[in-house]
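[User]
Um, tokens okay?
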Amino acid sequence: MSLAEADSVVRSLWESDALAWDRYWVPIFSLFARQLAFVSSPSPGEIILDVGTGSGLAVRELCKTTPSAGLVVGIDSSEEMIRLARRRAGSAGLKNVKFLKMLAEELRFPDSFFDLVVSNCGINVASFSECVKEVCRVLRPGGVFAFNDWHLIDVKPHRIFGEILRKHRTATPSPQLARERAALATLESYSRTLGRKGQLQIVREAGFKKTSLVTHTHRVRFNRIQDFLRIRLCRSTIRREMSEMTASKRKIFLSDLRFALKQFVHDDAFVFDWDVFYIRANKPR
């Protein structure tokens, strides 16, 4: 499967996963968003862009950090995510924010419009280079670009989940599931090949200066194993994987998962480390 085709499939999954993402994943990614706000160091009065905003988590965190920001704009390719972001911002009483459906690699903003551009794990690796070039274009000279990302293989419970799923999943998937598997595998392989240093190199090649890369280890805590399983099992592709297993296979799969994940239970809580890397760069004056 080509990178472009894989990206198209995953964008569709992102749309269908919007509600599950907002309910189960946002509480974890708020840890990353708070650290991103610290790394990006927004200043009062700045005009800020959040790329791949999802349901607006990073926008809300930035508004907490800098309540006097001039304007914070969040963009996402998903219409459903944009609707969620607007509702969440309205519930939080935020006034200086705007959410737009837009592709990160085709930003519809004037040159040098923003003081700061951030992304909380929101840049698609398939269009990473194009997105970085667009970010550089819309940033003012001296402006800051700060983003974060992570790799599934670096987070042990996620890696274990994937290994056990591959062991028990059906060998005869439906065409839809086979396509989703191929798309996710293609993007994961490309992401591993690119890596954090590859992303940093692309940022430098786009013309950014004063670049830095730091990995931050976040300690993630759930009350129980089932809470971790819920965030993994809620995604549409995993639900499809489960539905195409036989009942007995599904039972064994869940049993093996719980057994393998017991190593992360400490003092009646499910605890593990989640490494996220943060890149910060400046557009030359």
